[in-house]
Structures are given as structure tokens and as C-alpha cells.
Amino acid sequence: MVPAPRLVELVNERLEEFLADRASILRSIAVDLDPLSGFSERFLSGGKRFRARFCHLGWEAVRGRGDGSVDAGDEAGLAAVVSASAALEVFHAAALVHDDLIDHSDTRRGAPSAHRVFEGQHRDSGWSGDSADYGHGTAILLGDLLLGWSDELLDEGLASLGSFAAGRAARLEFNRMRTEVTAGQYLDILEERAWHARAETEQRARAERVVVYKSAKYSIEAPLAIGGAIAGASPGDLEALRAFGLPLGVAFQLRDDLLGVYGDPGVTGKPAGDDLREGKRTVLVAIARERMDPADRRRLDDLLGDPDLTAAQVADLQAAIRDARAVDAVEQLIDENTAKAMAALDAADLQPDAAAGLAELADAVTRRVS
Fold first, then answer.
1. Long-range contacts of range 115-121, CB-CB < 8 Å, 24 or more positions apart?
2. How would you label 337-364 residue by residue, b for 16+ Cβ within 10 Å and e otherwise?
3. Residue 78: predicted pLDDT
4. pLDDT in tens, 148-186
5. Which residues contact 252 (CB under 8 A, 6 or more apart)?
6. What are the φ and ψ backbone dihedral angles of 369, each rounded to 5 degrees?
7. How far, in Å, CA of 183 to CA of 169, rounded?
8. Per its UniProt entry, which superkingdom is the organism in (predicted)?
9. pLDDT at 65
């Protein structure tokens, strides 16, 4: 099995090669496009590569056990899964660029978000018009460019496979992921604005739906299925990977929700309580509202989503949510979903080394601090 550090090296090398090629295309059009290339290269140079690692382990978990139409253990199979893993990282970058724009986020990974970078470029250059408008428009186009590049990168990798069926199955999994996460992003926007028109009894279920489609499927379930499809996975194998990936993806996002309210800015690269200022209607918030008395619930509703929350107001909301025992409840949900994922992994008939790698990675994504 390819060790995780080596897989990350291969994905990084593939990204560097691909981005250098696309940068040369942009440069051939105009040197004015260099900032798009430069930002893409910087933004994709870091990250934890969780999606890439899940894609690779999905491949490792079932390779050599297909119907014989594809030998997923050869160099072509490895090249395909490396390109698919890199494509997932590019897709993720596109989603983050657009997500930061939608949420009006100033920072990402401890640095200015894309629209803020281009807003600063406009302002520092003394160009005409509004700097914020320029930054917003450029970030939209950059996100679109990255989306297109993720498709190109995936297709280049799948073209190396000897099996049309395996390549087609992987492409369909990627397409499904793209639809689901876009739908999930819309549902997230919808809940931030329409929550007050929904019945109180619906709040938590609607927040849970966002967790599933905006993050859980796209972060873990889909990468596993894409990797498995490249290996020529049987329907049963894919079902086993999904049974593990979906509850783990839910636990992954619930941890993210906690970090969005209580994370250390020096570690997360985002301001403290950023989700509170953005008005995220997360499962954490839904549970807190269920358990608060009417006065505290009204105060939470009044303050949540105010971009000008002071540090003292953020601390007040953090304490109120914790006092409502919502943090404990979410920690319990993380444990329950992780246990469900591990039970599915134990029951699955997967390659032992890959199963061990998945167990280790499951621990990393649910216990992370950033």
C-alpha cells in the first residue's frame, strides 16, 4: 500500500505540474492573469489533504478485487487515483473561494481570503471603481476557473485507466458529489435567512440536512466512493465505503461546527466565533436553542449573524451555548457517529492495511483542532 506521506507527495507533485501548465496557458493570454495563477498555486500548496487521502484509501480498500476488467494495482491505476485526489483538492479550493465570498469571510487558513486579496490589489493599484466589487467579481471567476480545472484534472487521470466502466463510474461519483455539495451550500444559505419562518420543531432536522449535503458526503463519502470506483469496486464494496464514510463525514462537520465557534484563531486561521458573526444555523445552534430559556434564545437570535459582534458579545454567546449543554450534546453526536462509522468499517470486507489506514484517518478528522 502507498504510505500516506508518499500519497501526499504524489498529489502535491501532480498539483504543481498541473497548475504550472495552466499558468502557462493563462500567461499566453495575458500577463495580467498572473495573479489568478499565483493565488491558485499558493492556496493549493497547503491543507491537510483529507479528501485526497480518503480517495486513495477508498482505492486501496478494494483494489485487485474488481471484476477483472481493471487492474487497479498497476501504475495506471495509481496515476488515476492521484489525479482524482488532486482534482478533489482543486474542487475543494473552488468551493472555499466561493464559500468565503458568500459568507463575507476575511480570512482563510490565516491569510486573506480570495476576494479580499483581489480587493487589496485593486485598492493598492489605484484603479477606478469600487475595490470590493472588483474583489467579489474576480473571486467568482477564480472559483469558476478552479471548478473547470478540477474537471480537467479528473478527466486526465481517468483517461489513463484501461477500463471505460471504471472511469465512467468514477466520473459519475464526482458529478454526484458536485451536485450534492452545491445543493448543500444553497440549503446553508437558505437556513441562515429563512430559519425564522420555519417551525421550531424543524430547526434541528434542517441543520442536520445541511451537514449531510454541504459537508459529510463531499468531504468523506464521495472521495471514498470515487477511489473505490477507480478500483472497479462492486456495488457491495461501494455500499460498505458509504456506510463508513457518511457517519464519519457527519462527525467531521460537527467537529468543524464546534471549531467555528470555539476554535483557537491561531490554529484555525479564522477569527474566534466566526460562525456566530456569519449567522450559521448549525446543529450546535439548533440544540442550544432547544435547551435555552426564551430570554436566552431571543438574545441568541438577535445577535447571531451580526458581522460587527464585539469580542465580548462573542464570548457571551459562547458561554450561553455552552451553558445550554449544547457543546456536550454535539460532542456526544460526534462520538455516536464515529462509533457508527467504525462499526461499519469493522463489518466491511476491505483490504486490512487500508482499513487500518481508514481507522487512523477517522481519528484524525474527528479529533482535529483546525
1. 115/139, 117/39, 118/35, 118/39, 118/142, 121/35
2. bbebbbebbeebebbeebbebbeebbee
3. 94
4. 999 999 999 999 898 999 999 999 999 999 999 999 999
5. 215, 216, 219, 220, 365, 366
6. -115, 10
7. 21
8. Bacteria
9. 63
Kindly provide the residue ranges of all beta strands, DSSP E only, lying in the chain, ordered along the sequence: 107-108, 111-112
* Residue with grid cell 445552534, as numbered in its chain: 285
**pTM of the entire structure?**
0.95
A 10 A CB-CB count for 107 gives 16
> pLDDT tens digits, residue range 85-101?
999 999 999 999 999 99
Q: How far apart are CA 47 and CA 51, in angstroms?
A: 10
Q: How far is CA 156 from CA 75, 153, 232, in A?
A: 14, 5, 18
Q: 365 and 248 in contact (C-beta within 8 Å)?
A: yes
Q: Domains for the chain: give ranges and CATH numbers.
A: 4-366 (1.10.600.10)
What angle, 0 to 180 degrees and rounded to 10, lies between the N-to-C axes of helices 235-262 and 326-347?
Answer: 160
Whole-number Å distance between alpha carbons of 193 and 279: 9
